[in-house]
Specification:
By secondary structure, this protein is an alpha/beta fold. The longest helix is centred in the C-terminal third of the chain and has 18 residues.
Amino acid sequence: MRNAPVERTAEDSNGCDRRSFLKAAGIAGAALVLGRPDSRAQNPAPERIATNVADALNIPRTRFSLPGLFPGRVVEARAADVIAGGRSDTAQVRLLFEKGLEALTGRSADASFGLFFSPDDVVGIKVNPVGAGLISTRPETVEAVIAWLARNGLPKSNIVIWDRFDYMLADAGFTPERFPGVSIEGLQTMDEAAAEGKSADNSRWRGPDGKHVSAGRFDPDRYYWADVEAEKDNATLNQHVFNGRHSFFGKLVTSRLTKIINIPVFKNCGNGISMATKNLAYGSICNTGRLHKPLFFDVCVEVLAFPEIRDKLVLNVTDGLKGQYDGGPSAAAQFIWPFNTLFLGTDPFTMDSVCHGIMIAKRKAMGVAVNEHPRFTDYFRYAERLGLGVTGPQKVQHIRLES
């Protein structure tokens, strides 16, 4: 199983440089048990860093724009027998997904299709393959979604399973053999040996022109700009494709996909979470390493404000068949448990706000020292101010299904 590049949070910056952090990512999450309270949490918030989010907000919205067709509504669908012996029951996953979909839309699963899609859409299914075999998006969940799409007339040739890093997808079970007729694509490649300091040969990721071999997969005209400079070393460039202050969207997202279904996993990220918003915000653009410490939570809002995501993201299905309550964002087997739950909604901020509350309760129940400083949840309210989501217990419709 390959180690994944790790997205660092603001509370991960304890003097660990990026190269050593990458090397440490595979050590069973030993350095990533972040449940202890953050002594810096009471410090005054720094002045907000300039970004180009205002440009995104000025672009007219569509009827599909976030918070989507069912703002403020999230369905929590649970069945005790989905995970048995460590494996997912495919039939039960499909039933759970379709029941959740019906509760979200108020229509049958098949009738719900037309609310979101037409047969000529090109639908991208954004998965999270980090922690393959432990806490990654389960192929059975993706199979359930694809079966629903195909049954209602969407050609499999119009479906793309994707993530930012191509090498991680096969490890997590997303292969042409398992998903025949469906495209499986990463926005970029990365040389793992070079990233981990095991090889000084950069020719596998850097072309004769000196540019990253994946540079052409990103759209030079569509980007998230933030006034934060990237590191200039080879390890950073290998992982992030570009240096500088621009994080470009992948051309797959800007030019080919017409709709997006987001299938993240249920896991913590320090005292925050790594679920619906982070899966897309950090998975759709390059050059993200520079953003983690100063803008980690803001990125989860501001990248989703751009029409490439805001107008195409029509459905979120948080895969909680297994959950991880500590040690995240890397996989840490000792903190993973069978949760047997899917969360569905069109509004990723509603979903994340509900899931954050569930995660906090689980962490407390397991004896984890929890920091509930507002800085870990302020981004939900920021999203609401930008008109991207609906949050707050008095505004959210949380539908629970048990079977």
